[in-house]
Amino acid sequence: MASADARDGDGRRASLLYDPSVRAYAYQALTVLVVGWLIWQAWSNAAENLARANMTAGFGFLSGRAGFDLGQALMAYSSDSTFARALTVGLLNTLLVGVLGIITATIVGLLIGIGRLSKNWLIARLCTIYVELFRNIPPLLVIFFWYKGVLSILPDFRAIRAGVEQAKAADPSVGDPLFIISNRGISFPAPIFQPGFGAVWIALAAAVLGAIGFTLWANKVQAATGKRPPALLVSVALIVLLPLAVFFAAGQPIAFDYPVLGRFNLSGGGLISPEFLSLYLALSLYTASFIAEIVRAGIRGVPSGQFEACSALGVRSDRAMRLVILPQAMRIIIPPLTSQYLNLIKNSSLAVAAGYPDLVQVGNTILNQSGRAIEVIAIWMIVYVTISLVTSVFMNWFNARMALRER
Amino acid sequence: MANRILAVLIGAAVMGIGAQASAGTLEDVKAKGFLQCGVNANLSGFGSQDSSGQFAGLDIDLCKAVAAAVFGDATKVKFTPLSAKDRFPALQSGEIDMLARNTTWTASRDSQLGFDFRAVNYYDGQGFMVRKELNVKSALELSGAAVCVQTGTTTELNLADYFKSHNLQYNPVVFEKQEEVDAAYNAGRCDVYTTDQSGLYSIRLSLSNPDDHVILPEIISKEPLGPAVRQGDSKWFDVVSFSHYAMVAAEEFGITQANVEEMKKSPNPDIKRFLGEEQGSTIGADFGLSKDWAVNIIKAVGNYGEAFERNVGQGSPLKIKRGLNALWNQGGLQYAPPIR
């Protein structure tokens, strides 16, 4: 009697009411109906309320003129651009701080996590203090701390300008400084690539490919003979020297846009704004404290026999960590690491506290100027979900690659 | 997870259903027994809280005037402090009954956002404040400056238009809250602070050294500030608008907080009608208010001139001159329709 359909003892078909598969379908259909009804209710309510408040709805407003300026734009933008373009600028700013923050947080977190396991008493304690400090403060406060901190520590722009003016008056040959760190941000000479610079990029790409090829060859040689050619040294030399040689051969095709001290502000050159700096530092250092704990847990999760075996074979401890322990620890580290990356991206929406024009801040401004609250919030949600899902997919792929493969 | 989504959806649906039950704002306000007024909490002279938590300012007085007109009691008002960004959703959602938060009346806010504006309780214009040591005499010298501005304001748009039309460069430093803009300007993050000129006078006083800052002469925009209500409720709209006009009319008639009882005996038929002393007059009742609604307003906050001087004029630290806000027969723009 291993049959799936419900029959009673006499072999007759039982009432549909007692058929498990029918009941399962019925429950699911009911759930779909209830959820569908609720969505419809919410939607029609919103539409009705909007109509009653004499408000228009729809995404047509996105093609309207924005009318406001933004402090930082990675693409051409002016007040004549559309709302849609303003949102794109905000999205790019979000991605910029998210990507740079993830890279920095990973490096800092890895170092701190390994540092906490150090046998050096001082390093281990310092790393513990770092983790406990940043992990236990809400991210918004960390951002406030960095913004107020960055603004109050950095020297006043006008004082710098007065100093430079004085130096110029004393010695006319003195020019404007190349790098200026002030409460207006960090300014630096921005490179302008001349037409011949393309060859340098090509050389760089060739050097990277060459380095990869050499490393693969080195792996093969090592597998065959047990002796490893100096792959790292050759790769670094290739990547540094080849583009450099092409650069000089092409006649240094690069110019710089130098920062100029204006009456009020700096003009020209590149500028890292204090808003970006504080948000980036806050997000990186905050998330790094969580990543450090994940790394420590990952390393602790590798059986100590692995390390002892390395010691017994005479492998130096730094090599043991790099070649034996970390690769195994990665399998434990990656899944929770993904959550931290997602957290960092989502926390970047707190940018509004530091005045950084990210997606949420630009959206806020649009929401205000156009009054399209529902539409703007829908765009926010869709964009954040998309970014987070893409990050997840990438991390899952990475995890699958790093997972233990049975041979 | 599914449960959570369900809960949110149920919440959304229930909220929507709840918001549907509304006859008219005047009836709603009367039924709940107090007026919910959206205000600024950080702009001294217009809407701010003193050390004991009491609200004061020109916009606050307008809220009190409406409460006095509806209930005969100016204390029956609750204030909701709102940021520039939150003020419109708060009014749209019905969280507040009226918005009196130094809000500029513009065509798009009147049409697209679904609000109604009519009374203007302060005629303002956008200006610039800079540090004295910069030695700037005109806004046209400001090219290259970093400008602090609050997001979600008409100020932000005027700023972009002004600098663009004069071919000037600038670097906007934008914050959501006025306190954040104040702090950034104070910390030297930007050279220029721009907002409505009345706001600049008020903010200058809150800076560590008010005398180190000057307000430039240029006014780059028209900013008629006034109360807003939701569109489509003209009865309530009339009550709010005429609460302001009653204050203006009182000033024109020379009726003050001190002499209002005395003025009831005035032989002037206009004044008698205004104060509800005319036989058979139904002005108050037609608004859905009591006969002595205007008397209650004047008793609560005085006439427009008194409220102005007390909050932003000579009786206040701001010492703003009447200027555009003088009565129409004294060279200003404040003009009340005849109350008859």
From TrEMBL, chain B:
Keyword entries, A-Z: Signal, Transport
InterPro entries: Bact_solute-bind_prot3, SBP_3_CS, Solute-binding_3/MltF_N
Family per record: Belongs to the bacterial solute-binding protein 3 family.
Domain of life: Bacteria
Signal peptide: 1-23
Single biological process term from Gene Ontology: amino acid transport
PROSITE patterns the UniProt entry points to: SBP_BACTERIAL_3
Solute-binding protein family 3/N-terminal domain span: 34-263
Protein name per UniProt: Amino acid ABC transporter substrate-bindnig protein
Pfam families cross-referenced by the UniProt entry: SBP_bac_3 (PF00497)
